[in-house]
Write a structure and sequence with these properties.
Layout (H helix, E strand, L loop, with lengths): L1 H21 L4 E6 L2 E7 H49 L20
Amino acid sequence: MRLVGIFLWIIVGAIILWFFSLNLNQHVDINLFNAQYQNVNLVTVIFISVFIGVIFGALLLSSQVLKAKTEVASVKKENRKLLKELEGLRNLSIDEIPEADTKIEPDRDL
């Protein structure tokens, strides 16, 4: 499975390089925040745009991962607390259980 993933990354890389080679001699003008850049190589613009997109995506993903990890940690803490309570209840003898907890009330919905 890992070999297939490596092979797919090689194919994606080859496609990107092929796309860049098609646009090597292309130049564009960019207006960015009241600044004008004349005659910029298109490959450079595409590379910088993809790089900035990857950085923003990684930042958004890392915030969601951190949020999920804190939620998992709180659930694990609650789980440990409930397991300790369960162990304590398992170790109780039948004589120690209060009378009110053992009464079974009939269903009145029938």
